[in-house]
Design brief:
binds 3-methylbut-3-enyl trihydrogen diphosphate; 273 residues; binds magnesium ion; alpha/beta; 6 strands
Amino acid sequence: MRFNNLQTKKNNINLSNELDKERIPEHIAIIMDGNGRWATKKGLPRSFGHNKGVSVLKEIIKASKNIDCKVLTVYAFSTENWIRPSKEVDFLINLFEKVLKKEISEIHQESIKIKFIGDLSPLPNSLKLLIKSSEALTNNNKKFTLNICVNYGGRQEIVKAAKEIAIKSSSGKIKPSDIDEQLFNSELLTNGSKDPELLIRTSGEKRISNFLLWQLAYSEIYITDVLWPDFTEIEFLKAIIDYQSRNRRFGGIESLSNESFEDSYYSSLSKND
Ligand code: IPE
Ligand code: IPE
Ligand code: MG
């Protein structure tokens, strides 16, 4: 066991050395998926997977801070997850409350600002109050931001923003011609914050399951077959290294190594016109 730990540390150090410190994503979004399958594979109730998932999240928050990433946005419960058996839903909601109660002082000590994103109205009052006080307590923390998406759905978020804009427009606060991407973005639950450069999804599913539909427009996507409860700092570093090998073009083209070749072709075209 001791040897395993030393080996893990060594692997982490090796991978950390491969990181380009100049190209660390400032904002990483994660779809933490695969808790249930992890538990079922082990012959355990699905809730064991959710419990293990919490300790993995703690490790990944530490790993994010270590590499100087500034914002982590994690998908904890979607607007669609209510259709699960009510016992599992209740377990998850209780888990959020239990974990937040237990961890909030350490979160604050670590100078982490915590924010919950989603429609919190159907949550129990005790959890809503805890969320409110946790957000207020950590509001001025500057080192790191942790966004937890609970009862979050990208479509619901976009519809809500459209409604807010319609209300402002019909009351004359804004004109229809004022509506642009920036204004729309500012009405989203993420409040105009910087889009994630990287989306990680665990458990191999190749879909975004209604997560951050607007904000992920140009994010790099990294999908791993590793189930969330098995995800580690090493897997996280692998995702960042993969991200750093991507060529982000945003609709443009790769920088040209043979610009004069391209130029001479275009000028030959105009001569022949
Ligand atoms: C992700 O794991 C956690 C939540 C959606 C709450 P799942 O519970 O979706 O696990 P799988 O995908 O069924 O294995
Ligand atoms: C997405 O996972 C939601 C969270 C991780 C909270 P799901 O397990 O709900 O997604 P689907 O059903 O496989 O698309
Ligand atoms: Mg799932």
